[in-house]
# Entry
Amino acid sequence: MKKGAASEWVPLEEIVHADVFKSEVMVWARRIGVMPKEIHIRAMKRKWASCSSSGRLTFNTELLHQSADFRTEVIVHELLHLKIPNHGTLFRALTRAYLARWRNR
# Structure
């Protein structure tokens, strides 16, 4: 079987983790007021996540095994890129505001 073939066996636990993670992304998307066109989870060598200009979010499978706090930071970061494509002052301010509100809940 080819590496990465669609018919590769994936443990049920991984599928459940991925579905829960995607639900977390959608909860944050509603809070922030954005709607990703697609959400993908796949192995990535050098990044935790990425956001395309077309609105597709891709998250590293390793993120599923990180702490909830770290996952939330990555999710918020990528979702904010749907509003602001760069890491400028406004982006950083919104990131701090959303995460501070979440931490103080």
Notes: The longest strand covers residues 38-42. Confidence is low (pLDDT under 50) at residues 1-5.
